[in-house]
TrEMBL record:
Record-stated family: Belongs to the group II decarboxylase family.
Cofactor: pyridoxal 5'-phosphate
Keywords: Aminotransferase, Decarboxylase, Lyase, Pyridoxal phosphate, Transferase
SUPFAM superfamilies with a match to the protein in the record: PLP-dependent transferases (SSF53383)
Organism: Streptomyces koyangensis
The protein's name: Aminotransferase class V-fold PLP-dependent enzyme
Gene Ontology MF terms: transaminase activity
Key word Cytoplasm present: no
Coiled coil: none
The keyword Signal belongs to this UniProt entry's keyword annotation: no
């Protein structure tokens, strides 16, 4: 058996060329065979197809590259929930830009590991450029803002709580958040050994400053981190950041803002006002695999001052020995809790450079405008009820005369048929269908199709 070729080096591109051709062909035919946003038939049918394509997964004698790559890529594509389909609109799961996916291929080929400079000379310098740029975007008036790359919003929120905890090593940190907050916050408190979080009710969908004031008044004498949200997972709602920052300042509490969804409004001249007050937070979670159209992972934790990252400093002699650091080799180990890290900065850097602030802002505006269009269609639809005007690109709605069980059944039927992928959310004590519009290529006609499918599957 010949030794398989490598992806890198001067010979790598020639070895990749026929394999990429096979991948692209299988992606195309797999999407055609799927014929919609989701494979029809539900989990059992999909699992059976995957089993057929992969069995045996570890044969005694290999099939060879083409015989493995083509069929398995085809099975993956045929069985995908494809966010590039306009009717795949359930989650904060954006279709990646072709540009970003191509950049990610280059990163995979070169395979830098961001735990020491000698594994990632250019990639580490590029990551530093990207984190400085995004930190300045988040904190335009700060003297020394900084940012770290994470696997997503969950890891960024965990890091925010960790850094806040380490500022008070002898006294338990109390975390306060709204009922609208992401589930990663109470889980992070549990993971870090903190007291159970304090949940402030959010009957109107956002964290109320007066309710926060009353909660903080009960925690006098304790170190507190308040976690607000700029773009909730269920509805895209944005908490009143300036007023919350005022309350935190009055009580001496730190403020973290989970802007994993809404953060890229910063790129939009029309919409960035909705994030007024964001720069008053001590830390901010961003995630560009949502309104940034990046392949995962693309999470960021930004902080108003680089000194807040000091607790992450760590030394492993084989990676960042003191004499190497003193000699000028960058110390990367304190830039994450992870050791081996992909160069996720590269695809983001290519995207920022290629599209610029105005290009990214235009994409953000497109999907938010699309959500306004869908809300208008639902508002005027005789058989559908709109929950509220969208704050971002998420729209909640339901068949007017359906009960919660019927709403859930409509969603599952559309999934099983492979016709549409809609999410679900609870608000005002009821279950709603959720359309999360992150595809800038979606057209109003696609929204018409979505609503007709919902109406056609609503029990009478």
């Amino acid at each position: 058996m010949n030794t398989p070729p490598l992806a890198g080096g001067t010979a790598g591109p020639d070895a990749l060329a026929p394999l990429l051709a096979a991948v692209l062909d299988a992606l195309r035919t797999g999407a055609l065979d799927r014929g919609g946003p989701l494979p029809a038939g539900g989990p059992t049918t999909t699992a059976r197809r995957v089993h057929t394509a992969t069995h045996p997964l570890l044969p005694d004698h290999g099939t060879g590259p083409e015989a493995a790559l083509g069929p398995l890529v085809h099975a993956l594509a045929q069985g995908a929930a494809d966010p590039a389909d306009p009717l795949c609109a359930a989650h904060l799961h954006a279709p990646p830009l072709a540009l970003a996916a191509a950049a990610d291929l280059a990163a995979s080929v070169l395979n830098p590991s961001l735990d020491s400079w000698d594994q990632a000379p250019a990639a580490s310098a590029l990551e530093a450029e990207l984190t400085r740029t995004l930190a300045r975007e988040t904190y335009p008036a700060a003297d020394h803002p900084d940012a770290l790359l994470t696997t997503g919003g969950t890891e960024a929120n965990q890091l925010a709580l960790l850094l806040a905890r380490e500022r008070h090593p002898t006294t338990p940190l109390h975390v306060v958040h709204g009922a609208n907050a992401h589930h990663s916050l109470p889980r992070a408190a549990w993971l870090l050994g903190l007291p159970a979080t304090h949940t402030v009710p959010t009957p109107n969908g956002t964290l109320d400053p007066e309710a926060l004031h009353h909660t903080l008044a009960t925690l006098t004498g304790h170190p507190v981190l308040v976690a607000a949200t700029a773009g909730t997972t269920d509805s895209g709602a944005i908490d009143p950041l300036p007023a919350l920052a005022d309350v935190c300042a009055a009580h001496g509490a730190d403020l973290h803002v989970d802007a994993a969804y809404g953060g890229p409004l910063l790129f939009s001249d029309r919409r960035k006002h909705a994030l007024h007050g964001l720069d008053r937070a001590h830390s901010v979670t961003l995630d560009l695999h949502k309104l940034g159209w990046q392949p995962v992972a693309a999470g960021i934790l930004a902080v108003h001052h680089t000194g807040r990252l000091d607790p992450l400093q760590h030394t492993a002699d084989y990676l960042n020995s003191h004499d190497d650091t003193e000699a000028g080799l960058p110390d990367l180990l304190g830039r994450s809790l992870r050791t081996t890290r992909r160069p996720d900065a590269f695809k983001m850097a290519v995207t920022l450079r290629a599209l610029g602030r105005d290009g990214l802002g235009a994409l953000v505006d497109q999907v938010c405008d699309l959500a306004d269009t869908l809300a208008d269609q639902i508002h005027h639809h005789p058989a559908l009820t709109l929950h509220a005007r969208p704050a971002l690109s998420t729209v909640l709605f339901r068949p007017t005369d359906a009960d919660d069980d019927q709403v859930a059944a409509v969603r599952r039927t559309l999934l099983d048929d492979g016709h549409a992928v809609l999410g679900r959310a609870r608000a005002d004590g009821r279950l709603w269908l959720k359309a999360t519009l992150l595809n800038p290529h979606t057209q109003p006609g696609d929204l018409d199709r979505m609503l007709k499918l919902v109406e056609g599957h609503t029990p009478r």
